[in-house]
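FORM 7B - TANDEM STRUCTURE REPORT

SECTION 1: FIRST PROTEIN
SEQUENCE AND TOKENS:
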Amino acid sequence: MKKYFIQIYSHTPSVDDEDNWVDVTSLGIHPDIAGYLAEMGVVDFYRGHVPARQVRRLQKLLRIRHNLGVNLPGAAIIMDLLDKMEELQEEVARLKRR
């Protein structure tokens, strides 16, 4: 019996280039959802593309939505709170090093 192996590739864009934009359909996201998130100010969205530097944020938001079963605005609020918590933790760590 032959064994077959499947190799799965994940789209991981380079975030070094500020002008690098990624097609949202290549991420498995419907353009309407990305447009709605852009209206809420969560991500930038232009002609079906999002900046590569925001891809991880977008994927994290959709994971939160799926895993917690919240709607998009709820997931956006959770993302903002998580970002603020991370900033505060970094500031506390920085102040402790003084």
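SECTION 2: SECOND PROTEIN
SEQUENCE AND TOKENS:
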Amino acid sequence: MNILAKPVNFLKEVRSELSKVAWSTKRELLASTVLVITVTVIMTAFIGIVDLGLSRFLSVVFK
């Protein structure tokens, strides 16, 4: 096999495999993105509130 045959064969196989992928629709992608951002904001707020509460609690305990 010559030096160019392997990369060409690899790219052909990649193209073949990518044609088998079930790609998300634009609507599904948007819904997933909104969900991820929403969950991230909720978790950030929750962790921030817990951190603030624990910080204040520990500062009172160790004062």
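SECTION 3: OBSERVATIONS ON SECOND PROTEIN
The chain has a mean pLDDT of 95.
The radius of gyration is 25 Å.

SECTION 4: SIGNATURE
Preparer initials: ____
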